[in-house]
Amino acid sequence: MTQAPNQNLNNKPNAFNELEQIASILSHDVKGSFHHITCFTDLIRKELDAGNIEVAQSYLSIIDQSADKLSQIISELVAYANLHKLVKHETRTNLKSCLHAAIDKLAPTIAQTSSTIHIDVSGELRIDTALMTQVFVHILENAIIYKHPNRLPEIHISSDHSEEFLTISIKDNGSGIPLKFQNQAFDLMRRFHTAPQYTGHGVGLAKCRRIIELHGGTINLDSEYVDGCRILITFPIDHKTA
Q1: Angle at 66 (CA atoms; ends 22, 76), nearest 5 degrees
Q2: Nearest 5°: phi and psi at 93?
Q3: Predicted confidence (pLDDT) per residue in 70-110, tens digit
Q4: Predicted TM-score of the model (pTM)
Q5: What residue numbers bound the domain in which 38 lies?
Q6: Cβ contacts of residue 198 below 8 Å, gap of 6+?
Q7: Which residues lie closer than 8 Å to 219 by C-beta, 6 or more apart?
């Protein structure tokens, strides 16, 4: 049964909470990267003074990595902050076509990982197709990246219609998000899988939330789903065309 979007859920922070998140990122991630660069710059000076050119060069590569990380964090934060300035170009879009556009963008990844995606959706949405395709690309890509170590990725996408709402369900058989972290899933810079093979800085789902909210919808995790991760995206009926 489709339920009304809850405007007071923890994963929809107000502007003040969002500013707190950005301040935390600046004080932790950005400041940390600067400190890393400063420390290794001092070490390079010492090694050069001692004539250890090769050691100094090895430290330079570490500085390059920290600078790249810093640049990525800042770029992602700027892109996220600029989302509120976006002018949506809404058109009546077939939901299935939008999903297939996202799947086409992920075709190489899907093939490389032997992933399977099942689609059982219907209806149209009045949306900015490019923005909503970004949302689907990120959610599907996450489902593939964070796959269960003993299972090939399998994703099921379905839709549920009521008189007032349209809900899109995207569920996978991956590693999921621990229950204690689920209320933070759509916050900025929240990463729940920190192994080296997982890249990114935790901005993607926050961007998805903001894009969904720009369209008057909500995005939530189904905390009762235990076989992976299930994301529910709900739009009011005004954003659906029969």
Answers
A1: 35
A2: -125, 130
A3: 887 777 777 777 777 777 889 999 999 999 999 999 999 99
A4: 0.71
A5: 15-84
A6: 145, 146, 191
A7: 11, 186, 208, 209, 212, 231, 232, 233, 234
Residues 57 and 164 in one domain: no
Beta carbons of 158 and 120 less than 8 angstroms apart: yes
SS3 115: coil
The CATH number covering residue 219 comes to: 3.30.565.10
| pLDDT tens digits, one per residue of 208-224 | 998 999 899 999 999 89
Q: How far apart are CA 93 and CA 123, in angstroms?
A: 9
Largest CA distance in the chain: 75
Phi, psi torsion values for 18, nearest 5 degrees = -65, -40
Q: Which residues pair with 66 in a beta bridge?
A: none
Residues 168 and 225 reside in one and the same domain: yes
d(CA 5, CA 216): 9
How many domains does the structure of the chain reveal? 2
124-128 and 90-94 beta bridge pairing: antiparallel
